[in-house]
Amino acid sequence: MTARYEHTTDGPARGSLRLLQLYPRDMNIYGDWGNTLVLARRAQWQGYDVELLSYDPGDELPSDVDILVGGGGQDSGQDRIKEDLVKVGPALKAWAADGVPMLAICGLYQLFGHGFTTAKGQEIPGISLMDAHTVAGDTRLIGNITLGTEDFGAVVGYENHSGLTTLGPGARPFGTVRVGDGNNGKDSTEGGRVHHVIGTYLHGSLLPKNPAVADWLLARAVEHSGATWEPEPLDDAWAERARTVAMSRPR
Ligand code: GLN
Fold this sequence. Notes:
The chain has about 250 residues and is of the alpha/beta class. The chain has one domain (about 5-250): Rossmann fold. The chain is built from 6 helices and 13 strands. The strands form 2 sheets. Strands 1-3-2-4-5-13-12 form a 7-stranded mixed sheet. Strands 6, 7, 8, 9, 10 and 11 form a 6-stranded mixed sheet that branches. The structure holds glutamine (GLN).
């Protein structure tokens, strides 16, 4: 599927971005599609055209993209995409090394790591884009979650996973857990970062309530496209209200 989103500002577009949504059919739960929509909308509002591409197992991978987004999925969804992901893994790793920004939520975050050992003992291989490994625990970690982050201030979302992720020395955490469980409920880390890639357990969806993260990803995408990112201030009053409500909710 390809969709075009034209810039909504006056005058010519300031640039054009190719946004790839990875595995929307199998890996796209708890509103993760909202992340793609936020990126496309904020880019339009800042004067950029967006070409939205989606990639499902067996499709032809585009030759180059400026930003990639992937969502979460059940173990069964991860099982369905695992062979294809291993096939496209080297291309995704090359993009990441080349500075393509990526956002991988939950199930894809796990598989961007070295792999996920399910509760049944099955090993779903990852692509080792992120130095992290995940093993299913015996309880699900569910609820509202708030992080402190260095680059984006407080980040809010919702987590629902059984996998317990441990980062290796090649990845740094996305944030420090203030409320919730995060990567494993023990070491206070949440998510992982490498190059311009963010992996995180936070659904919600993440980006509508965390515009600072969206704009950081867009800035990296615009840089990758060869255009300049000089954003105008946007009215984020609704996002601010949603953040306040989310942070006031009980776990
Ligand atoms: N199946 C994985 C887990 O439960 C991922 C879940 C998800 O993506 N929400 O850990």
